[in-house]
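Lab notebook, bench 4. Still working through the backlog of constructs that have no structural model yet. Next entry is a single chain of 150 residues. Request: give me the structure tokens for it.
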Amino acid sequence: MSYVRIWVHLVFSTKRREPLLPKEARLQVQRFIMAHCREKQIFLQAINGYTDHLHCLLSLKGTQTIADVAKLIKGASSFWINNTRLIPEQFAWQDDYYAVSVSESFVPAVVAYIKNQEAHHATQSLEEEMSNIAKAVNNRIHTKEIYGKK
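Model written out:
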């Protein structure tokens, strides 16, 4: 039997990055995604976000791809949001997403980073956050620079 453990930090946003997920709605969506991931055998270590996006830390199995997992999570959650009429308007996630691999040793730092989203976005927009992460990754800056691990 193969042993595979690939950690992925997945981020996806609402269509046009509209702030459609106030805190209570976001918490309900997160609970739905957690239950859906358990049902689909997707190992979700952490989830949190802000009014216009969600962050997930996932561990993929050898048979799972990032694209398939992102499609399952986004598709099921948008269907659920619309079916339950959680928000008054038609809901959709953007087609694209951001995904980056995470070293096993940085999992605790990424979990802390994800849990701290509300405070983080009090001073930084999603665009600024993604730009800073992309610059750090492109410049091969160590993960501690991105997630603040000491």
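Notes after review: The domain at 6-147 is CATH 3.30.70.1290 (Alpha-Beta Plaits). The radius of gyration is 15 Å. Flag for follow-up if needed.
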